[in-house]
Amino acid sequence: MIKYSLICKNCDLTFESWFSSSKEYEILKKKNFLNCHKCNSIKIEKNLMAPSLINTKSDKSLNNEIKKYKRIKKTISEYQKFIKNNFKYVGDKFAYEARSIHYNKKKKNKGIYGTASKQDLQELKEEGIDTQMIPWIESKDN
Ligand SMILES: [Zn+2]
User: Are residues 24 and 66 in the same domain?
Assistant: First the structure.
């Protein structure tokens, strides 16, 4: 048995539910059998932050943790919006693009962002190219 904390995307109600496995959750979700006790919406998602917090803290501090997380998440998503508007996405060509900016010395009007391995970042650093790691949350709202 597995206990999930679920959240209704429609009315923000959070509640807990038991499933025999994570697979059962997926199946019920797919068949739209999960619905909100309050508003009956089927927009139910796993409340992702909860599992690691269960049983470790009192309810009150748990709520504070969740509030804190929501605030951070909001800040990160605002940060992501800023980056998306001001930087060019280069995907996994990040190391290549970073070098071309650095060595061509051509002033590009936009910075870049993308993905790179730890080793890439280490090599860039050794070449004197400053990179910054940024927290990133993939939004899965669809
Ligand atoms: Zn609801």
Answer: no
